Amino acid sequence: MGIFNRRKKVDDEPGVKDRTSSDDTLLDDSAFYKKPTALRLFTVFIYLAALIFLILVEIGNINGNAVIRDTYFLNINLQDIIPTSVPNAVLINTIAQSLGLHDFYQVGLWNYCAGYTGQGITYCSPTQLAYWFDPVEIITSELLVGASIALPTDVVSVLGIVRTASTWMFACFMVGTVLTFLCIFIAPLEFSKKPRWSHKARRIFLRSLPIMLLRFGALLFTAVGAVIATVMFVIFKNTFESAADFNIQATLGVQILAFEWVAVGLNLVGFLMSVGTCCGICCCSGKRKAIKKQEQEHSPRVEEK
């Protein structure tokens, strides 16, 4: 590999070997190289913050407690499922509630919750691995015997896609969370306590590459999970609201979407730091700048008269 043999070729040129030797003698690593304590702390901070936001995404909507109950992907409001243009709509809505329907249903990563306007959440389903939201089954199961209600045809037709997408979304968030957790402890090791020029380029590259792949994995899985969640629930929202005859109101959970995309942004920052470190191996070790600075410090100063 040309990168790793570069120094060897340069050192074989006439006169270069002696200059390199003198430079190494002149350069005092401990005096002019600052240990990457700040970089390591910053790396720990961004991955710890990303982990916290991912955990908030994953515990969202699992119960009716504060903050958690407001962290959901989608809220479907059936309170006004009968259009207000129908005579006696208020009475009809009251009858609809008596049939067993809740006023609203909201979806999380593990389950769904339901409740009534003015009372809040009154029920949350048990958590389930790779959970997917099936509004047809949920609403049908809550209706009393003999009652029936129609849902938009487009919602029924996309349930197969929703199930597959939800499985991938769940898996991506889980893997992304685990990799982000590992980055808290492993990513800071990419920054050596000694300057890059004191190590062989091959050694630095072989140490940095696995860590960079780990950072990329954390970014990739977190981003894919966020993209799937955003696209899927935006489609869900538009599908419900496009059926004007049903007057179903659907609202995206801005809070959970913000959490997941902030986590993606933090993982992106961490990955770019890793890319910068790898680029520094072959492009800018910083040795020449350090030598120049030390030469200036050792050069005799002319005293002003």
Automatic annotation (TrEMBL):
TM ranges: 38-59, 168-191, 212-236, 256-284
Domain of life of the organism encoding this protein: Eukaryota
Gene Ontology biological process: fungal-type cell wall organization
Coiled-coil ranges from the UniProt annotation: none
Keyword DNA repair: no
Gene Ontology CC: cell cortex of cell tip; plasma membrane
Key words of the record: Membrane, Transmembrane, Transmembrane helix
Segment forming the signal sequence: none
Ranges annotated as biased composition (Basic and acidic residues): 9-22
InterPro entries referenced in this protein's UniProt entry, alphabetically: SUR7/Rim9-like_fungi (IPR009571), SUR7_domain (IPR052413)
Start and end residues of each stretch annotated as Disordered: 1-23
Protein name, as recorded: Integral membrane protein
Species this protein is from: Lithohypha guttulata
